[in-house]
Amino acid sequence: MQAPSVGRAEGYRVPAPRTTEETVDAERLHQAEWVVSCLEGRSAARPGRGAVVALASRLRTRLLRRGELAFREGDSEAGVWIVRAGRLELAVKGRQRPLIVQIMRSGGIDGDIQKLLGMPFPYRARALEETECLTLAPRDFEELLAEHPQIARMWMSTMAERLSYSHDRIVGMLGRTLTQQSSRLLLDEAASGVVDVPQQKLSEMLGVCRPSLNKVLKELEGQGLIRLRYGAVDILDPYGLAQRAD
Predict the structure, then answer these.
(1) How far apart are CA 91 and CA 124, in angstroms?
(2) What is the pLDDT of residues 132-167, one digit of tens each?
(3) pLDDT digits (tens, 9 = 90+) for 78-88
(4) 218 Cα distance to chain centroid
(5) What pTM value is reported for the model?
(6) How far lies 35's CA from each of 46, 150, 189, in Å?
(7) What are the start and end residues of each CATH 2.60.120.10 domain in the chain?
(8) In the chain, how long is the greatest CA-to-CA distance?
(9) 149-173 and 26-40 helices cross at what angle (nearest 10)?
(10) Predicted local distance difference test score (pLDDT) of residue 16
């Protein structure tokens, strides 16, 4: 005699048990609260506790070793990625060298726009160091937005801000000299006055050869605006550097 199908009764799917705060561990709730803080931005309405619990129940943790890929170009089922700690490099294949689109740091989010537009990733993501990410599977992300309007509004607002920032960054680079582009990139990538990105990576982000960038950086250093050191650049005069970027 065939056993009845698990999770079904009289031909109908049995609803999944309702997620409550008691069924989600404290660490997941802490992670969800952190994600909400990353999403807040200019959004006025913070989601209620039930929405936070629903987010917590869907989050999964991924630990990546240095050099490990999170997702590849053309991947349409990688879901949504949120960098918790560490860095992810987003890059596309160039004719002669990779072109770095962005370096995602803690709080960076990707994959949500691609999922909503039904598009595969146009680039690959690789960990630059040991990196912890929180992920949402495609179906979980869709259900979360559909079932919790407050989360959906907050998430859409954040996506709009990111798209606006990307647009402004691209427009700000058009028609600029390499000195202006390099100055703007350093200001954009700086965290607490330090750009922890090697010159080779910076040149790939600008789409130029390293010697050309190094010449510009040496000039900026000679003007007392930055200090070059192995694998990093210290911003000494952000106001002066901003003037060189305009």
Answers:
(1) 6
(2) 999 999 999 999 999 999 999 999 999 998 888 888
(3) 999 999 999 99
(4) 30
(5) 0.78
(6) 12, 14, 22
(7) 15-171
(8) 84
(9) 50
(10) 45
Residues of the chain with CATH 1.10.10.10: 175-245
Contact, 89 vs 175, CB < 8 A? no
15-171: CATH topology is Jelly Rolls (2.60.120)
- Element at 187 (helix H, strand E): helix 178-189
Q: How far apart are CA 214 and CA 199, in angstroms?
A: 7
Q: Six-digit token pair at 34?
A: 């952190």
Number of neighbours of residue 11 by Cβ within 10 angstroms: 6
Which stretch, 16-25, 121-130, 184-193, has highest mean pLDDT? 121-130
How far apart are the C-alpha atoms of 142 and 167, rounded to whole Å?
A: 26
Which string of DSSP letters, residue by residue, matches 72-136? -TT-SS--EEEEEES-EEEEE--SSS-EEEEEE-TT-EESHHHHHHT---SSEEEESSSEEEEEE
CATH architecture of 175-245: Orthogonal Bundle (1.10)
Provide mean pLDDT across the span 35-58. Answer: 85
Element spanning 53, H or E: helix 49-58
